[in-house]
Structures are given as C-alpha cells and as structure tokens.
Amino acid sequence: MKITKWVKGSIIAAAVTGAAMTASFAQEVSESHLEAARKAITAIQATERFDDILPGVALRITSQLIANNPDLEPQINEVVDQETLALVSRRADLEREAALVYAKSISEEDLNAIAEFYSSSAGQALLTNGAILAREVQQSAAVWQRGVERDLMENVNAKLKEVAPRPETEQTDDAAEPKAE
C-alpha cells in the first residue's frame, strides 16, 4: 500500500510540475510570438494531418457500439454525431499546443519568415510536391550510393593489386569484396 501511495503521489507531483512548467512557459511567450507560430503552422499545414482524428474516433466508437447493440443503430448514429460535433471546438486546443511548441523552438522572426515563405507560391509548390520530391531524391541517393560503392571497390581492388600483388593462383576478382552473409 505504501508503494501505491508513493507512486500516486509521484504522478500527482509530476502532473503539478508539468502544469506549472506549461503555465510558466505560456507566460514567457508573447502573444505576437504565438501569433507568428499560429501563422507558421497554418502556412506549413503542420496540424492538417490531425483533422481526421475526431471523425475516425467517432467512426470506431459508432462501429463498436452498433456491433454490440445492432438494434440501437439509429440512436447510436444520432448520439455519436451530436457528441462528436460538441467536441469539434477542442480542435483549437491542439492548434494552441502546436503554436506553443513552435514558439518554444523557433524565434518570432523566423516563424514570420516561415509563414511568409510557405504562403508564397514557391512555398505552396514545395508543400504540394515535397513528399514526391523527397522520395525521388531518396531513390536517386540509393542509385548514387550503389555506383559509388561499386567504383570504390573497383578502385581499391586495382590499387591493392599494384601495392600488394599476389601470385596468379591466389588472386581472385573479389579479393577485397565483402562476403555476402
């Protein structure tokens, strides 16, 4: 029992400390800094991928409730829809938290510059094509790596043959190549 009380006390203390740290942090960030962070996260679409959370949760809850109570399907749909709509306003909490995270890490001036760039046509083009470009660059890097590895192996083998020639019976084409495991 004493351990359980100690653990509960530690959890409460950690929660209080975390709340105090959040409150003190919120006091350190100016409103203009938070506004710059909001503009930046809007411009870079930092939180858009979270837009499907509430509808997804509602769908899972609806499916679960209907599976357990198929005779109440109309009522379940209606109640879940009402309660889901009642929680939509909490989306602003996520935006506020995201703004605090960005404001903590990035200066107000940089956040304004980020928002300005990503609101421009160039920034929008980067947002639109960024994932495709990153994937294609990754593929190019893999091809480049294989070529560099091949060329390095060939060059090293050629130099090794010059500096440490071996009799014909001991030489192999893959003397320096690593064995596949």
Q: Please bin the fraction of helical residues.
A: over 70%
- Total of helices: 7
> How would you spell out the order of helices and strands?
HHHHHHH
What's the number of domains?
2
Counting DSSP E segments of at least 2 residues, the number of strands comes to: 0
The biggest beta sheet is recorded as:
none
Average pLDDT, rounded to a whole number, is 85
User: What is the overall silhouette?
Assistant: flat
Radius of gyration (CA) equals 29 Å
Terminal CA distance:
54 Å
Percent strand: under 5%
The chain-level structural class is mainly alpha
List the uncertain runs. 1-26
Q: What does the model show?
A:
- The chain has 181 residues and is mainly α.
- The chain folds into two domains: 2-119, no CATH class; 123-163.
- Helix content is 78%, strand content 0%.
- It contains seven helices and no strands.
- Helix 2 packs across helix 5 (91-105), helix 2 (31-43) runs parallel beside helix 6 (108-119) and helix 3 runs antiparallel to helix 4 (73-87).
- It is flat and about 85 Å long.
- The model is unreliable at 1-26 (pLDDT under 50).
